[in-house]
Write a structure and sequence with these properties.
Layout: E1 2-3, E2 6-7, H1 12-24, H2 26-37, H3 47-59, E3 63-68, H4 71-74, E4 91-97, E5 107-112, E6 133-134, E7 137-139, H5 143-162, E8 165-167, E9 171-176, H6 184-191, E10 199-201, E11 209-213, E12 215-224, H7 239-258, E13 276-283, E14 293-302, H8 308-321, E15 334-342, E16 345-346, H9 352-365, E17 371-374, H10 380-386, E18 391-393, E19 398-399, E20 407-409, H11 410-428, E21 430-432
Parallel strand pairs: 5-9, 5-10, 10-18, 11-17
Antiparallel strand pairs: 1-2, 3-4, 4-9, 6-7, 7-20, 8-21, 11-16, 12-14, 12-15, 13-14, 19-20
Helix pairs in contact: 1-5, 1-11, 2-5, 5-11, 7-8, 9-11
Length: 435
Amino acid sequence: MTQNGIPSALTEEQVQRILQAVDARFDAQLAFTQDLVRIPSLREQEHTAQDFLYEAMRKRGFTMDRWQIDVKDIESHPGFGPVTVSYENAFNVVGAYRPEQQTGRSLILNGHIDVVPTGPAGMWSRSPWDPAIVDGWMYGRGAADMKAGLVANLFAYDAVRAAGYAPAAPIYFQSVVEEECTGNGALAALLRGYRADAVIIPEPEENMLVRANVGVLWFKVRVQGRPMHTREMGNGFNAIDAAYAAIEALRRIETKWNGEHHCHRHFEHLDHPINFNIGKIEGGDWPSTVPPWCEFDVRAAIYPGTTADEARAEIDACLREAASDPRLGGTPPQVTYTGFYAEGYVLEEGSDAENTLQQCHRLAFQSDLESFTTPGYLDARVFVIYGNMPTLVYGPKSLDIHGFDERVHIESVRLITKTIALFIAQWCGVAPSPA
């Protein structure tokens, strides 16, 4: 059902059939999500979870594409993030649904399979890989960020089919790696040729649409010291003390950039959108030796419109200038870029895709869709900046992602799935399923 190539509005009967189909399969959806959470898909270990999703997509009759990311294929692209680990197990999976005849608009349903480390397991209420459902929340590493969203994409499609309809345009179900560290998985999928008229990424975003988010740089700072026995400490040079001086210099950039928030659209109301996180630090060799080295890892945010190269130049200059601090002994720290090298993005208002999402959200939630700006990284920047595709980052409520007892809100997942199912039907158009 189309008008001038654009699917017409869903009928009340179609809406109700699709909503009821989500409800009918929701217990199965939760069980599938739990099975996926039980598979630890940490960096360099994602392949087993990808195998699980590959088989689930294959059983749905999709045309399957599973490939190992080759750094040589993507490293010359401006959106590439430097790689410091093996990609031996870095596989992307895409399942393609294609109708016999296309009359609607195509869609990418994207999500990432990789999860962040758990931290000390003893600080969790239960095993990070035990996806228990307690008081309306599903627990587990990756339950919220973002396996519930990945599964919602599949079960939203299932609901459309179970309601008796066949989408009338291609849909590409993408499960990508490396979202938590480089964004290279989404970039590899783009460069492999996957494009569509719109993209949905159901990250855990509190039932809201992301209007804008920051870019991110990862880098390692290394400071050299001069070892001495501690009885002659004054003749040595303490690299750990020097590292604190370098961190203070970076904090000055962080303060400066946060002071400019009013100059950046959609960030005017945020007092501290730019966060420099010292995520890891180590140094020294022996308690009774003045430490000869120290290095720390930084995650630094940048505003949309600032290129990674521009931000890097200011960071590098800051650390060179910091060498004048006596604690650094006149030697600039060594800086190595180790992951994210990503620009931020803004989702411009008024696209057909956003308008469709607003309509579908209202039908599912019985309330208006809100949008917000996040100081976090999202793979949407790949599709928006380099693919020129309207990309809707929109997903369920969560608590403590990247922390202990990460969890996702069950009823929120149900309603988000309903929204995505309605979006598939409205955006792609539907025809009666073949008998």
